[in-house]
Amino acid sequence: MKKYILSMLIISILASCSDFQKLEQNPNLPTSVPSSIILRDALSRMNDGAWNDIMRNNQFYASNYNYYSNNEYNWGNADLKFTTLKNVVQMEKEAKNAGAKDLNPYSALGKFLRAYYYTNMSLQVGDLPVKDALQGLTIDKPKYDTQKDVFIQVLKWLDESNTDLTQLIATGDKTLDGDIYYNNDLRKWQKAVNSFRLRVLVHLSKKADDTDLKVKTDFANILSNPSKYPLFTDLSESLQYFWGTNNKYPRNPDNFGNNATRENMAKTYIDLLKNLKDPRLFVVAEPADAQLLKGLKATDFEAYVGASSGEDLADMSSKAGLGQYSFQNRKRYYASYTGENTFLISYPEMCFNIAEAINKGWVTGNAQDWYERGVKASMSFYGVNDATAYLAQNNVKYAGNTAEGLTQILNQKYIAFFQNSGFEAYYNWRRTGIPAFLVGTGTGNGTKIPLRYLYPKSERTTNTDNLSEAIKRQFNVSVIDENINSAIWILK
To answer: Which of 133, 77, 142, 132 is nearest to 466 (CA)?
Structure first.
């Protein structure tokens, strides 16, 4: 009898546990998410936006109102995108769960997204976990791979993504959904993958002779085999983010009163346009009121004045209030909620990357042709459709495969990066010193432009030993002495 009662008690407990587990489940929450929805989120997070801290750090514009912002470079901890990368892994799993083959569009784009996010994260901090990363509960304290190994893996992912896309295109695969950039067109994605690969190789320019990275060989292989490695052919094929009423352009009618006069144009950018007599100046900026009062016209280049990003903020604020500085073109940037599209990877940038590679002797070709293609494409974005006179100017006409010619390429790439491509203008300055970024009291950080961000604070408490090893290896200091002014491996 006792055994019977005990058995019934156990059955009752198990049944109640089962009932509890059922009650614990929320029928209103999904147990899985379609891969298309995860893809859409991962793609949207690629957009670093415009008219924000990144663009101030790029010295395109400056804040003159301390209550809302400043122009200091007192950088803190990086916001690394491992959560997004975990979602990419889940996207691939969901595609397989839904019946996709081992080779499918989500797996091909997953490799590109890994390469894209890892590139941007590593350029911010240096070494990162790769082999041990994204393993879920299997490895909760991943070891850090060297930055060199990070980029070896990035280039491998990009090559595999291109190969996978070639096979999928050949079979006519139409299963991709959720693509916010190319409307699920794999041919366009393949061009974006390879154009991005050129960007990565250019970022590795200081390691161009490294026998493991094979930067020059890789660059030459891509250019010499366009059927295997298709690239962008015009501006329209650029990877670009289109704003809308549900995702408003950062400058729009709603915030006209908040930002229009609290931000003025930066001298680094404005002076470059002025010195080159660049008509894009008249499109992006307004003449300074004080200059107009002197009798200058809106069509005079000298009517436009930018403030040094290193200027004391109180001085900048005072001068801006007196009309001594140019503001962003309010008719262009506050006229609508859609604004202008924001490039993530653009055709002009690709042209300048190719021109730089030719200038440096990595590959053969006509650097002037690619340089001029990049200039014309960028100018067309601003409605300037005839660049003949501009390109004929002595200080704009390509000076040949010399140091002067390289400076021209880099200056034009900087101009083309205005309000797009995230940190790329800063990364290119950090790599080359062109154009010269301005510093001063308003810069903070001992009047220095930092060379990196700090690792996330969470790593100090959850992955202390591995982070300590990585920081010691890279900078020969302890975690406590980690510094934003230390050069990462890619810059050495």
So the answer is: 142
Amino acid at residue number 21: Q
Q: Over the chain, what is the mean pLDDT?
A: 94
The model carries a pTM of 0.93
Task: State how far the Cα of 442 lies from the Cα of 187, in Å rounded to an integer.
Answer: 46
Residue labelled with tokens 């950018």: 269
Of 386, 412, 385, residue with least CA distance to 397: 412
What's the one-letter identity of residue 394? N
Within a 10 A sphere around the Cβ of 465, how many other Cβ atoms?
A: 9
Of 346, 366, 367, the C-alpha closest to 409 is 367
With b meaning 16 or more CB within 10 Å and e meaning fewer, what string describes 209-233? eeeebbbbebbbebbeeeeebbbbe
What CA–CA distance (Å, rounded) separates 425 from 48?
Answer: 13
- CA separation (Å) from 435 to 58, 266, 473? 10, 13, 31
As a residue count, the chain comes to 492
Q: In the chain, which stretches have pLDDT less than 50? A: 1-11, 13-15, 20
At position 389, the amino acid (one-letter code) is A
The span from the CA of 140 to the CA of 291, in Å, is 60
| Rounded CA separation 154/341 (Å) | 27
Of 107, 98, 232, nearest to 163 by C-alpha is 107
Distance between CA atoms of residues 492 and 481, nearest Å: 20
Q: How far is CA 94 from CA 37, 69, 73, 104, 172, in A?
A: 10, 42, 41, 12, 21
